[in-house]
């Protein structure tokens, strides 16, 4: 593969995070190059994330990757939990499904990483891009003196093709826990090595455990920790368990595949387990770490496992990486286009480092409980590790499933003057209706129409037009002046409560942006907007609520954007 001599963004690492980031940037007109030090066949043997939570699927919709994944995966909507062969419904993973209902994706999608990577890679190829396999980053330097924006010079090496020099505007390190980018950039990590060691096995299996086809199961044991069971895509399942001190002592020279399978069979008892085919298995030690910086020298960025590592206990690896990628894509794209002041890209570190730090704190306790030990933080509560696992999961459930991931107040997330929702949190999805046909339409789908990826949504909730039309027209005129400054940066929508034959009939003039109906007023209620007053809501490109103002304070919207746009 012939490498270019210059590119906007050089992405090191062709795992899910690197591929998603590349696809998202290409969609927004930013040229990328993805390189991976391993050859493709070798890379396929590494890493096997398998479960995607509702928020991750919503975020993948923003880069047009969710549909193909859903076609490939298994949608699990329930779970069972067993102790001594009996159902214990008050524990296990089942409690998370009630919390899924805040999303139209009210399920967890199970699809093995090999297949998700194929989907992401094909999406990248649709933009005319291929992954450069076998290329290793050996060094880079930063020089801003030329003034052409290509401030980073990178050196790549290939075993047979030699050396290649590439100039780029940014480097994104998505190259895993042993990140070359992180090491070359001299970014330290806060590391917590543990004594916990786990087994995961994927393959074709059968069991007489009731509920094995639901999607998820847990078997509480005193010998193998909290045993995991997952129904995967195609004909495969996953079984996982912890290597207790007794098991580690039993196998001082390590486990073979055959021994790992035999212990999985033991761990599933009293249920029977038959393993017909092993597609992949791993024996790994839990290590928790967070890079101290996710942005270094302005032009070097880290994402995914290069930025943070943790156990797979709550299935956070790929989910957290998706949050990283979709947080970074729009900030990086807009910065390259000259839309934003440096504070916007700097907020990537601020937001995602805080999220990763919280994740690690949760994972320390979860990994211990899954391994059959009482976490030190929970000592003295007179509860078993299995009971504590439920407590840890429930205490953090919104964050764990992604729907409750939030970001602190900042230049991007400013206190709303209207609505009842806080800034920095996920903007709720809801049902709208098309004018004319009255076909139902998801609010998120409306946000993504008109090539809106990477653009800010300014949503005018016009309420009851009979009561708001005067302020609406003034607001629309004011907002138009803002949008005219950078038309490619904004996406405009108007939503009224009720039905009408057309925008003119309801508003006494044209709608500002695309026009939709909130027939029963539920979307207005979801956003805490009074139908007699209306409101203007600003939603970030990653569908985080950023700010809101009243219809008669449209100038505040311009003030908000003036704090960070060029």
Automatic annotation (TrEMBL):
User: Keyword annotations for this protein?
Assistant: FAD, Flavoprotein, Oxidoreductase
Gene Ontology terms for molecular function: FAD binding; oxidoreductase activity, acting on paired donors, with incorporation or reduction of molecular oxygen, NAD(P)H as one donor, and incorporation of one atom of oxygen
- Segments forming domain FAD-binding: 7-360
Q: Which domain of life is it from?
A: Eukaryota
Pfam families for this protein: FAD_binding_3, Phe_hydrox_dim
Q: In which pathway does it act?
A: Secondary metabolite biosynthesis
InterPro entries cross-referenced by the UniProt entry: FAD-bd, FAD/NAD-bd_sf, Phe_hydrox_C_dim_dom, PHOX_C_sf, RIFMO-like, Thioredoxin-like_sf
Gene3D superfamilies referenced in this protein's UniProt entry, alphabetically: 3.40.30.20, D-Amino Acid Oxidase, subunit A, domain 2, FAD/NAD(P)-binding domain
Locate the Phenol hydroxylase-like C-terminal dimerisation domain: which residues?
519-565
Q: Which family does it belong to?
A: Belongs to the PheA/TfdB FAD monooxygenase family.
Record-given protein name: Uncharacterized protein
């Amino acid at each position: 593969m012939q490498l270019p001599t210059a590119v906007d963004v050089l992405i090191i690492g062709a795992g899910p995070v690197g591929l998603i980031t590349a696809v998202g940037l290409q969609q927004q007109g930013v040229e990328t190059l993805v390189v991976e030090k391993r050859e493709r066949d070798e890379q396929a043997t590494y890493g096997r994330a398998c479960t995607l939570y509702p928020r991750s699927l919503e975020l993948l919709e923003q880069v047009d990757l969710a549909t193909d994944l859903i076609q490939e995966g298994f949608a699990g909507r329930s779970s069972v939990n067993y102790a001594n062969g009996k159902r214990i419904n008050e524990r296990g993973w089942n409690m998370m499904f009630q919390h899924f209902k805040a999303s139209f994706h009210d399920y967890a999608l199970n699809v093995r990483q090999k297949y998700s990577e194929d989907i992401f890679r094909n999406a990248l190829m649709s933009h005319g891009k291929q992954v450069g396999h076998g290329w290793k980053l050996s060094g880079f330097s930063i020089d801003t003196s030329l003034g052409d924006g290509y401030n980073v010079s990178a050196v790549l090496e290939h075993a047979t093709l030699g050396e290649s020099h590439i100039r780029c505007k940014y480097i994104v390190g998505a190259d895993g826990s042993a990140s070359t980018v992180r090491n070359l950039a001299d970014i330290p990590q806060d590391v917590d090595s543990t004594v916990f060691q786990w087994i995961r096995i994927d393959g074709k299996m059968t069991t007489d455990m009731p509920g094995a086809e639901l999607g998820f199961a847990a078997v509480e044991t005193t010998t193998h920790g909290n045993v995991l069971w997952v129904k995967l895509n195609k004909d495969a399942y996953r079984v996982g368990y912890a290597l207790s001190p007794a098991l580690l002592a039993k196998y001082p020279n390590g486990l073979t595949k055959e021994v790992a399978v035999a212990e999985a069979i033991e761990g599933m008892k009293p249920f029977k387990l038959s393993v017909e085919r092993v597609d992949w298995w791993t024996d790994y030690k839990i290590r928790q770490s967070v890079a101290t910086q996710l942005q270094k020298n302005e032009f070097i960025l880290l994402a995914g496992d290069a930025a943070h590592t943790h156990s797979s206990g709550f299935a956070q690896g790929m989910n957290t990486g998706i949050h990283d990628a979709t947080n970074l894509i729009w900030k990086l794209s807009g910065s390259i286009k000259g839309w934003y002041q440096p504070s916007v890209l700097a907020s990537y570190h601020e937001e995602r480092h805080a999220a990763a730090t919280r994740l690690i704190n949760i994972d320390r306790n979860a990994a211990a409980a899954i391994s059959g030990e009482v976490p030190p933080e929970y000592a003295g509560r007179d509860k078993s590790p299995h009971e504590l696992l439920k407590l840890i999961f429930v205490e953090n459930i919104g964050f764990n499933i992604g729907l409750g991931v939030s970001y602190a107040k900042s230049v991007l997330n400013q206190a709303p003057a209207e609505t009842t929702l806080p800034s920095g949190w996920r903007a709720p999805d809801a049902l709208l209706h098309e004018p004319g046909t009255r076909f139902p339409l998801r609010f998120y789908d409306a946000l993504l129409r008109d090539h809106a990826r990477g653009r800010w949504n300014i949503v005018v909730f016009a309420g009851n037009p009979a009561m708001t039309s005067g302020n609406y027209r003034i607001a629309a005129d004011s907002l138009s002046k803002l949008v005219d400054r950078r038309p490619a940066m904004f996406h405009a929508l108007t939503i009224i409560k009720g039905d009408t034959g057309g925008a003119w009939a309801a508003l006494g003039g044209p709608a500002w942006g695309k026009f939709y109906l909130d027939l029963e007023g539920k979307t207005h209620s979801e956003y805490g907007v009074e139908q007699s007053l209306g409101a203007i809501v600003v939603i970030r490109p990653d569908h985080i609520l950023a700010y809101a103002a009243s219809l008669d304070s449209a100038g505040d919207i311009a003030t908000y954007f003036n704090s960070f746009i060029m």
